[in-house]
């Protein structure tokens, strides 16, 4: 089943993009469905829900936030476990070490996340579109241009 089967009435396709997701720009909205599960109900954004589509060239802050959270947890959770729950030092240290490795991996991912991408930004707030991203390639640029013409 393709994305086109989810179109309403006389809705027509203006542009398509295929990567990890199959994206479809119609005359009314933008649809996307995972390429691995094309018969799943698509995620949709009406054009009035899209504030803009920007090319982001900086580092991905989500990795930094995750790494800093892991550092905080690696510090606080073992101390609380040993102080409040009387957990031995070895399991608490193992937990702290695991969270420390997670933090290190997050920092490494953050340092390497310099590849530009297109980010859809929602008019109702960033939470609605945080994972609406396309890579910066020619096909994605053409798709984004089709979406921008509709905004």
Notes on the protein architecture:
- The chain is α+β, with helices and mostly antiparallel strands and 151 residues long.
- The protein folds into two domains: 90 residues, Roll (PH-domain like), CATH 2.30.29; 52 residues.
- The chain is 40% helix and 25% strand.
- The strands form two sheets. The chain has a four-stranded antiparallel beta sheet, with helices on one face.
- The longest helix is centred in the middle third of the chain and has 24 residues.
- It is elongated and about 65 Å long.
- The mean pLDDT is 88.
- Keywords: Membrane, Transmembrane, Transmembrane helix.
Based on CA inertia axes, which overall geometry fits? elongated
Estimated share of beta-strand residues? 25-35%
Unreliable parts: none
Q: What is the H/E string?
A: EEEEEHHEEH
Strand order in the largest sheet: 1-2-3-4
How confident overall, as mean pLDDT? 88
How many structural domains can be distinguished in the coordinates? 2
Largest sheet: 4 strands, antiparallel
C-alpha end-to-end distance: 28 Å
What is the helical fraction, as a range of percent?
A: 40-55%
Count of separate DSSP helical elements: 3
CATH class division of the largest domain: Mainly Beta
Number of strands: 7
């Amino acid at each position: 089943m393709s994305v086109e089967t989810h179109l309403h009435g006389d809705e027509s396709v203006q542009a398509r993009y295929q990567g990890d997701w199959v994206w479809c720009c119609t005359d009314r909205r933008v649809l996307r469905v995972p390429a691995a599960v094309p018969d799943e109900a698509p995620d949709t954004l009406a054009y009035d829900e899209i504030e803009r589509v920007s090319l982001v060239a900086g580092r991905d802050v989500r990795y930094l936030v995750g790494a800093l959270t892991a550092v905080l947890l690696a510090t606080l959770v073992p101390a609380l476990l040993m102080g409040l729950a009387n957990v031995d030092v070895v399991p608490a240290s193992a937990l702290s070490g695991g969270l420390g490795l997670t933090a290190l991996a997050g920092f490494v991912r953050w340092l390497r996340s310099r590849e530009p991408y297109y980010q859809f930004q929602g008019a109702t707030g960033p939470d609605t579109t945080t994972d609406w991203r396309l890579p910066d390639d020619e096909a994605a640029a053409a798709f984004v241009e089709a979406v921008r013409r509709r905004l």
